Amino acid sequence: MDRMIGVIGGSGLYEIAGLSGATWVTVDTPWGAPSDQILTGTLDGVKMAFLPRHGRGHVHSPSTVPYRANIDAMKRLGVTDLVSVSACGSFREDRAPGDFVIVDQFIDRTTLREKSFFGTGCVAHVSLAHPTCPALSDACHTAAGAAGITVHKGGTYLAMEGPQFSTMAESKLYREVWGCDVIGMTNMPEANLAREAELCYASVAMITDYDSWHPQHGEVDIAEIIATLGANADKARALVARLPGLLGAAHDPCAHGCNTALDVALLTAPEARDPALMARLDAVAGRVLKG
Ligand SMILES: CSC[C@H]1O[C@H](OP(=O)(O)O)[C@H](O)[C@@H]1O
Ligand SMILES: Nc1ncnc2[nH]cnc12
Fold first, then answer.
1. Which atom of ligand 1 is nearest to the CA of 86?
2. Which of 44, 209, 252, 274 does the annotation list as catalytic?
3. What ipTM goes with this model?
4. What is the pTM assigned to this prediction?
């Protein structure tokens, strides 16, 4: 099938340049409106879709980002590969502000968000043991290296609710006891929902600060973060620009099973399924529900 690369841009990344036929389109979903219109077009012959996670002008807080609508809208548009770009704090001395981390694991400490498309009337349990797509993550890693970015392969992202930053005790717990590498507020439930929607998902975390554990850097300073965001966003655009050339215009079935995550996930018997929920699942689970 045709590949379409979706990019969800985090804090600091509200648009990408260079798309042929660039058009902001409105996508309606059964889960409400996405964070903003979606910028569509092609880059090096590959279809692209870009969505600013917080909306242009940074309207949505991490807790109120419409995560389900965002993922549904990307799926509905035909996205096959979804790259999440996010600002984050670092728990490691050797992961400095300005560095990128290709995240491959998450610990979820969020509490206020809808985390699944499924529920009463259609219950599904997908595996999240490996929440990111290794092939898409590799492409992001290669693209970052080619763009001259200092990039680290693999890392555990602690997803916190926010909007306040962590206390020093929390920061030390996540770093020293839980062994996390970076911290942010948005990759959960985004990754969960991308898996339910059978998308290949990769997370590119752009470090802006050392959170609050570092004896020489003190507490998180939002002014410092904002100063780093601009340079990080330029690097992210350079990374994204290399993805079409690396991935190509055709999306083969994912060797890691991202595109078949729902094959054995649905538990509710067909005759017991809620028709209203089934209708809302038309894009996300259409592949398995049509069959
Ligand atoms: C700008 S600092 C806090 C803010 O930035 C990150 O957003 P995103 O993940 O969308 O790049 C972090 O998660 C917080 O929402
Ligand atoms: N230290 C931090 N904690 C949570 N989210 C962040 N986004 C950027 N820096 C962060």
1. 11
2. 209
3. 0.99
4. 0.98
